[in-house]
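Notebook entry, structure prediction.
Reason for the run: the old model in the group folder had no record of what sequence produced it. Starting over properly, with the input documented here first.
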Amino acid sequence: MSDLTSAGAAVGGAPVTGDGPPTGVPGGDGKERSASLWADARRQLVRDPVFMIAFLYILVVSSMAAFPKLWTSQDPRDCTTDRSRIGPSGEHPFGFDILGCDYYSHAIYGARPSMVIAVMATGGIVVFGGVLGLLAGYYGGWVDSVISRVMDIFFSLPFLLGAIVFLTVIKRQNIWTIAAVLFLLAWPTIARIIRGSVISSKDLDYVHAAKAVGAGNGRLMFRHILPNAIAPMLVYATIVLGSFVAAEATLTFLGVGLAPPAQSWGIMISVHQVYFLEDPWLLLFPCGLLVGTVLSFILMGDALRDALDPKFR
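New structure, fully documented this time:
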């Protein structure tokens, strides 16, 4: 996960709300500056064909996960061995798997576990890691030291090896446990990104102006400093969504993730890997969906970074 830190750090040093005094301070234009930045970023993203293609792809995959019956009327558990490994056709575009189940419907329903795990784990690290990073960066001193040492402990755990060990010890591999393990191993990265952004923002003029008019610590952190951390948080969260989708498939492939009768792209890849030379489409379809989803999240994150960081304008 360390390679994701640079993506967040790229936007972490650039305050989102500018260096003017905040809303509520006489003569302040912080709100207008912030609104202008987000409006400019939105216009840039809408004009970016790479972002729009990736965004539309994620919308399609999300609709598959949320409303699979919109995409197929077939029951993925309606199986018969008489149709085992029959190739793609007009009526069944992905063919049939080893058990004779409709492979297209399996792929549609397989999107849900991967997306749910990614969203749950990402939401957890954004909330938990964001709050700890905000506290560490704002208060400094012993608060920063304690939180930073805890982060260092988790940073010392190899991500993939740590996930395998935790899931092996738990011995209950389901959506909740996998999401919890991914959250446990990934929150320090976003905490460090937010911490750095807060440190670079808390000494700006508009923060001192807010202090001068009597703003308390809570108002300073959540009204004036936290908005500066939203940009790197969004960039990191977008990229890590794709990483978590890939992580779920990887853990499932290694035998410590989801297992049948659950349905996921990782299970499809794991079960049918031995048939690649004879029936390559059994691997190509789930791998294509997985790679497309991960790549789309990464491309969206890169586009968000370029749009939200003034240095890239």
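Summary: Confidence is low (pLDDT under 50) at residues 2-30.
The old model has been moved to the deprecated folder.
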